Amino acid sequence: MGFSFEICLQNERERSNAGGVNALRNPIRFIPLLFLGAIAAGTLALSMPFATLDGTSPSLMTALFTSTSAVAVTGLIVVDTATHWSAFGQLTILILFQIGGFGIMTAATLFGLMAGRGFTLRDRMATQVERSRLDTGDAVSVLKLVFVITLVVETIVALILTTRMRLFYDASWGDALWHGVFHAISAFNNAGFSTHSDSVMGYQHDAVILGPIMLAVILTALGFPVMQDIRANRLQWKKWSLHTKVTVAGTVVLLLFGFVAVLAMEWNNPETLGPMGVGTKLLNAAFHSVMPRTAGFNSLDVGAFRDETLMVNYFLMFIGGGSAGTAGGIKITTFFVLFAIVASEVAGRKDAGLFQRRFSPGIERQALTVTVLAATMIFAATTYIAAITPLAFGDILFEAISAFSTVGLSTGITAELPPTGQLMIIALMFIGRVGTITVATALALGGRDRPYRYPEENPIVG
User: Fold this and answer.
1) Which of 71, 230, 397, 414 is most exposed, with minimal Cβ within 10 Å?
2) E strand or H helix at 113, and its extent?
């Protein structure tokens, strides 16, 4: 008996040690650690005196908030990026949102490939819950695709913006290059950071500046699985996966909806579209139908938007963009899965689906879980901040959704939040970037299904 007991203890120790190693190899737990590591490194760099223009060390909260916002590719700020941070500080911010948009997710994949000869099938399928629906053999191919698209798109957009700023805005080649590169990388990563105090409001009449920024944001907001599918099957709709069809169709629908809504609601607003000509109104309405999806640049004063326009922004920000890209929000596929479920229930159909494909019960539960968790966190954060500040409720709600969905748009209250309010926004940005399902799974620590099922009984609903 004693010998058997000792063997059991030894086996349990071995399982615990293996669990510790697997925790590092498990991307569900490793990805949050990577984000936290990048945020910590960024906070340290931004805390240095030479990171600011006046040569004084910023507060720890300022450095932490800015680092989190950059790594989470959000764009919310408590100090003006253009006037507070030195060239070193701005470069640090640029590196952080490049890492947040590209490096961390791909690094997690590479870690598994190199250290463990690839993640196990179970690990890969778990990460696909929130990130994509890729086959397990696609990791290397996707990494190459991500790298090539990042390099090509950022270079093209940077060249366009640099040339335009040099030739039409009297900037020196050095200044034009810096602003062009910064905005190109920020746009591609959906970061929303700008080296201008007014974001891109100074370019609200310039389609050559706003156009490339919009296209870069739309492209990466589709997500890399969609890019992979389109690369493999070109524009052959019938060969696209359901994920690609839903993401592309949903993107078109939401962009058109946002464009029409902003144009109609702000047409006569003297503080936004009102004074502009028709062409400029169309340009800026289009720009602001793209930005709430995840990017955070603004060519109009968001604080001057009418309440109904802010409501539209709530909706667009909450949904966000495509999975496995740089976009935030609950994701397009999540929203349209829920929409299809409701439509099927109303029509009395047993199965829910889109484009002649039905959804599995697991996908339906995942969509519901993501949405409920997101709404709960936004509700809790909004309620808490409203309780400790005299700020308008609508502005607080806008800020909370923008933070969780890693959008970066603001009505201008970010710097007015007390330290605990800023910590709440930091938490929302982190959770929104890592993903609600990823966080929940990481906290579950290997929970298992019960070996039994309770008797079925249905409560009254509605």
Assistant:
1) 230
2) helix 104-116
